Amino acid sequence: MPTLRQLRDRVRSLKNTQQITRAMKMVAGAKIRRAELDMRAARPYAAAIGDTLNKLGQSAGAGLNHPLMQAREVRTRGLLLMTADKGLCGAFNSNLVRAASNELGGDAAARLYLVGIKGRVQLKRTPNPVAAAWPLGSKHFRELAREIAHKITEDFTSGAVDQVALVSSRFVSTLVQRPTTTRLLPIAAAGAGERDPGKNAFEFEPDVGAVLAALLPKYLEFTIFQALLETQASEFAARLIAMTNATDNAGKLIDEITLAMNKTRQASITKEILEIVGGAEALKG
């Protein structure tokens, strides 16, 4: 049975831990508000640029032709995985890595593009070659998205990879963050090959090809940018929940150990009283 001193040390240690988890909870709660605002502000633009791409597909029909849209036989796959740089956010990183592993399906030749230190650490023992890696917080998301888009575009157009998928977190709510898999390359425009001039009377200047050449790199870059925002907001939400649970659990353990400490102290006092009474009775006898 632990001594009274050991119990006091455990209570002191738990209180220190609780202070840390409470501080991390407050920081995550403050950061998630800004991250969620940025993420929700970007969603309408992502929807609009995707809608414009679909209109291009419907207007041009089967005439769409761009290197980023060229589907070919898949010999080498690429996977862009986004995780956090830090832990202490529950199963957030593990769920994303598991989703990436399921997407790979044991394909040892697939090339990895890793965003976030935790994903790189967890996948370092896999046989898959790492084509590029970036810390999530290495630079502003606009610059980071531009750099990632340039790298995977370069590899796709050169034939180093024939298909690229994205595994990132989708922010549903503070309580729900869902790993999501999206195909990045080749880009598919909804409605391509199904031209209906009567229904889709859109005109593009100077022509569809020029608009497509300007739009597709921006579409790819912004898709990655949106995924970075969603992943960051999901990380903060997961850390908020994890630190809330840790703080509450520390409080429960403190209460339990305090109760055990009080019982131990009470037993010690009772034992001392009995020893004093027994000594007094022995002196009388």
Question: Which properties best describe this structure?
Answer:
285 residues, alpha/beta, Helix Hairpins, Pyruvate Kinase, Chain: A, domain 1, 2 domains, five-stranded mixed beta sheet, 60% helix
Overview of the structural elements:
The protein has 2 domains: 4-20 and 243-284, Orthogonal Bundle (Helix Hairpins); 22-191 and 199-239, ATP synthase, F1 complex, gamma subunit (Pyruvate Kinase, Chain: A, domain 1, 3-Layer(aba) Sandwich). The model has no long low-confidence stretch (mean pLDDT 86). Helix 4 packs across helix 5. The chain is of the alpha/beta class. 60% of the residues lie in helices and 12% in strands. A 5-stranded mixed beta sheet has the order 3-2-1-4-5, sandwiched between helices. It is elongated, with a radius of gyration of 29 Å.
